[in-house]
Design brief:
16 helices; single chain; 451 residues; Vanillyl-alcohol Oxidase, Chain A, domain 3; 22 strands; 32% helix; binds flavin-adenine dinucleotide
Length: 451
């Protein structure tokens, strides 16, 4: 251990309300996320381990950590639940990992707006319990909502269960404001309005330590989980569109191709060899879903209220589909994309004609800034990087927008382009570039954003 690390440990140990973890097993465990879903990232990230992990309980201890990292020029990588898929919480340049799981209070609920102010380390499952008491619930949930934090979701996630109605986290109206600590000679608590908060939303913790969030919530509803068997894949896409254009409340509409269904947990597989549509709707919505299905000679299986199910369909959608498949065979990996509008079936047929049945289709209905769209998280067996890139290139060629889960930076994984405001926020709140180095591509060309 170097003298610098020894000194850092001494300083951290002198801070009140700060847990300091230095043993190798803890450091290794808390320097990983679920990047191993990507064999490409696994190769790059397996050896990246923090020198020290700290867990603050108060704003003062967060500020003290930021100040010490500044003084020692030490990289600082933030961590919530560590459930990200892109290695977002992995410390590329070692240094300090700060996990916010002990900074987790629901600070205030505002009944007149339905907004909630919550500390970043709060688990979404805990936040939803508090909201439920107020007749509310989170609008958007990743399928990892039981173990992921709200700060990690805003910083590293994009959308999920609820995106069929509420779009993505960066759509206006979901994040109302936030508080953050900067990494500077005199770190302080910054209170950012909606506009200023935008650049910290989905920035992988590269431009500020988010300490609390002000979020819009939805009315709490009882969501019923439905499953529909359908023999024809093209028909599942038409039905998905019929359901999302109906005047009903929906939390989720997903399609799993039959080869995927065969690899889901035993309780979900059926004797019928068919594709499956998974839906979460209200009791009122069920009547309309049944009506649409009757017209198509299909029947609806109502599993009951999702909250009360031993096996819920929330564990089979979004990236949990990939999780379930990887539980059977670790060679499964995945892609993420938005299918070309109104050409979804043609697109899938074109890809099938090039790659036979190498790619299995998993679709999710989403709203993109108010427009109903179909996202896909197809699964495929890993062979090598060239094959993967060839598939990505073909998908792009046929019109899909790719959110590549096999890359490290904010821009390549999601946004597609450099967001000047994110870079400017990093220049302002992290001028030494200590926060999660290597994850914001725009930082490399920061000179062009100065002045
Ligand atoms: P972490 O993984 O700990 O961190 C994520 C990023 O946020 C990191 O860059 C970290 O540095 C940063 N960060 C954490 N806390 C802070 C903070 N306080 N301030 C600033 N930056 C911070 N994602 C989705 O969007 N939708 C899904 O449906 C979804 N499904 C998934 C399913 C599976 C099986 C898996 C493995 C992952 C899935 N994910 C999904 C990815 C991930 O689970 C979510 O994005 C989750 O919300 C991340 O939360 P976390 O607390 O685990 O964050």
């Amino acid at each position: 251990m170097s003298n610098k690390i020894k000194k850092l440990i001494d300083y951290f140990n002198s801070i009140d309300d700060l847990e300091v973890l230095v043993n190798p097993a803890d450091r290794k465990r808390l320097s990983r996320d679920f990047y191993n879903y990507s064999p490409v990232l696994k190769e790059i990230l397996d050896g990246c381990i923090a020198d020290i992990v700290v867990r603050p309980k108060t704003i003062n201890s967060i500020i003290a950590v930021a100040k010490i990292c500044w003084e020692f020029d030490t990289p600082l990588t933030l961590r919530g639940g560590g459930t990200g898929n892109y290695g977002q919480a992995v410390p590329l340049d070692k240094g300090v990992v700060m996990q916010l799981n002990n900074f987790n209070k629901v600070e205030k609920f505002y009944p007149e707006t339905g907004f909630v102010k919550v500390q970043a380390g709060c688990l979404m499952s805990d936040l939803n319990k508090v909201l439920k008491k107020n007749g509310r619930e989170l609008r958007l949930l990743p399928s990892t909502w039981k173990t992921a934090t709200i700060g990690g979701f805003i910083s590293g996630g994009s959308g999920g269960i609820g995106s069929v109605k509420w779009g993505f986290l960066r759509d206006p109206g979901n994040l109302i404001g936030l508080e953050a600590v900067n990494v500077s000679a005199s770190p302080e608590l910054l209170k950012l309005d909606t506009q200023k908060s935008e650049s910290l939303n989905h920035a992988y913790g590269t431009n500020g330590i988010i300490t609390s969030l002000l979020l819009a919530t939805d009315i709490k509803r009882d969501w019923y989980s439905l499953v529909i068997d359908c023999k024809e894949f093209k028909k599942t896409i038409n039905l998905l569109k019929d359901f999302t254009s109906a005047a009903i409340n929906l939390k989720l509409v997903a399609v799993l191709e039959k080869e995927i269904v065969d690899l889901m947990p035993a309780w979900f597989r059926s004797k019928i060899n068919s594709h499956k549509i998974l839906i979460q709707t209200t009791l009122g919505g069920l009547t309309t879903i049944e009506h649409i299905c009757r017209k198509n000679d299909l029947s609806v299986m109502n599993l009951g209220k999702e909250d009360e199910l031993e096996n819920g369909i929330s564990d089979l959608v979004w990236n949990h589909t990939t999780l379930q498949m990887r539980a059977k065979d670790k060679n499964w990996t995945y892609l993420q994309m938005l299918l070309p509008l109104n050409e979804e079936s043609q697109f899938i047929n074109s890809i099938k004609s090039v790659f036979d049945n190498k790619i299995l289709w998993h679709l999710e209905a989403v709203s993109q800034q108010g427009v109903p769209r179909i996202a896909a998280l197809p699964v495929l067996k890993w062979t090598n990087k060239n094959d993967l890139n060839e598939i990505i290139d073909q998908c792009r060629k046929f019109g899909a927008i790719i959110f590549n889960p096999h890359v490290l930076t904010v821009e390549e994984g999601g946004l597609g382009v450099i967001d000047a405001d994110q870079v400017k926020a990093k220049i302002e709140y992290d001028p030494k570039g200590l926060m999660n180095p290597g994850k914001l591509k725009g930082w490399e060309s920061r000179e062009s954003f100065l002045g």
